[in-house]
# Entry
Amino acid sequence: MTRINWTFSTLLFIGLMISSCGKNKSATTATITLEEPVVMDTIYNGNELHIEGTVEADGKMHGYSISVLDSLNGVSYLERASDSRKSSYAFHEHWVNNVTDTVHAVVELVVHLNDNGLKMSKKVPVILLP
Amino acid sequence: MHKVILTIGLLFLSFLGNTCDVCGGVGSNASIGLLASTRYQLFGVRENFRQFSSYMNGIRHSNDFQLGTELFFRVQAHKCIQIMGQWAYQNNWQVRDLSTDYVGGIGDPQLFLNAVIIQKMDTSNRMKHFLTLGYGLKAPVGKFVSPDNSLMNLHPGTGAFDQLLMAQYTYGISDKWAIQNEISYSLKGTNKYAFRYGNSYFQSLMGSYNYNLSGYRLIAGFGAYFEHHKSSTLNRQVPITGDNSGFTFGTRLGMNFMTYRFLYTFSAQIPIFQYVNKGDTKQQYAVTFGINYLIKQKQNDKN
# Structure
C-alpha cells in the first residue's frame, strides 16, 4: 500500500512539474499586430495618435514597450513599458500630438520574449504635423 | 407601519440600476422603485463602485473602475407625487498594462417625478397592488469631451439632456413578501459634437422579504435584471468604430437596514450573460453602499 502511495505521489509530482513548466515556458516567437497607426498616418497638432494592437506568443513573454521617436534625431515623444508576463498582450495607448514643426516619426513596439534578450519589434512610420 | 417599511425597502432595493452606456461614467437607465405612498422624505449619500473590462481580439487590454459619490434626496410634493434627485461626483480610472488614466468630476444631475397610479390595499389594509409611473430628466452639467477623445466614456457627463420613462409595479404577497417589477426606458439626447449614446431599456424583477429585528427592520431582496442599449451614433450614423449595442442579463441583490432615523443600504449587481460592443466590453459587477436620513412627516398625514 505504501509503495502505491509513493508511486502515485511521484507521478502526481512529475505531472505537476511538467504542467507547470509548460505554462511558464518562455516565448520563442510572437505575432505582432499593429492595428493603429498605419504606415504614414498623418496626425495633426492637438489630435490623438492611437497605438493599438495585440501580441500573441507561443509562451510567456517578459514585457513590452512602445515608443514614438523622431526618426531623424531619435528624440522621444512617448515611452511606455510593461514587465507583465503573459502569453498575449492587447494595448490601446494614445498620445496627443504637440509638435511645433513637422516631424517624421516612428512608432515602435518592442516585445521581450525572454530574459536572455530575445526580442521582436515592429515599426510604423507616421507624420506629425504642427 | 409595515406597509411603509416594505415600500421603503423596495425603493432602495431597486436603486442599483445605473448602468453605463458602453463603458463609461455615464449612467443610462436609472432604475428607481417609485414608491410614492410613503410619507418619508429623506436625503442621503451613496457610494457606487463598478468595474468594466475592454478586450481586443479576445485579449483584455484595460480595466475601467468607477467610483461615484452620490447625493440623493426625495421630497413629497403631493400626496401622490414625489420628487427625487441625485447628483454624483465621479472618480474613474482606466488601468492598462502600459499606463493608467484618471478622469474625475461632477456628473450630470438627475431629477425624477413619480406619480402613484394605483395603490390598492387588501381587507387587512396591507398593500396589494402598487403602480407608479415616472419621468426623469438628466441635465448636461458634467464634464464631457469630443468623441475623438479616447477617454470619452470615462468622463462623468454626456453633454446632452437625457429623458427617462419609468414604470414600477409591486405586488404584496403577504406581510413579509413582495414582488416588484420595474421597467425604464432612457431616451438619449445629442451633444454639441453630434454624438449620441444609444437609447436603453432596463427591466428587473425582484422578490423581497422583511424581518423585524428588535424593533429595527432588515429587508433583503434578490432578483434578476435585463438591459439592452442601442448603438451610439455620430451625426446619426453608427461610428466607424462599429456598432456598440448590446444586452446584459444578471442577478441583483440588496440588503437594507432601517433604524428609527436612518436607512443603511447595500446592493450588488452581477452579470451572468452579456454581449456588449461585439463582446469587446464586459461589465464585471456593481456595488452600492448608502446611508440615508429619514425625515418623518406629521402624524396626521395619511400614508
About this structure: The mean pLDDT of chain A is 88. The first helix of chain A runs from residue 2 to 24.
